[in-house]
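We modelled the chain as a single entity of 120 amino acids. Its sequence is:
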Amino acid sequence: QVQLVESGGGLVQPGGSLRLSCAASGSIFSIAVMGWYRQAPGKQRDMVALISSSGSTNYLDSVKGRFTISRDNAKNTVYLQMNSLKPEDTAVYYCNADVTAVARVTLNVWGQGTQVTVSS
């Protein structure tokens, strides 16, 4: 069994910063792509940022230059540094990972989500 546990969400003023973390645990052999998605009320879940095991990244256009995704492969952890936050960034942020378990079964795993609210 593999789990993703997120932390770091909260309430921040416009222009502020937050750092999200997501740690994977369980019977992990390897992790390929890790990423962050977000879902605002009444809207679809959108990809925010992805990072491969080699460090290649991909971002939602509206967060380019403001958000940075990174990962620590030794800790099976992915981070999302969010700067210059805007009210439209308000959403539940979900961690996602493509995990190969010790049993060599590949799973796509989601975290439970963490709320990010940008408001004055």
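As a brief sanity check on the tokenised model: The two ends are 40 Å apart (CA to CA). Residues 93 and 114 are 5 Å apart (CA to CA).
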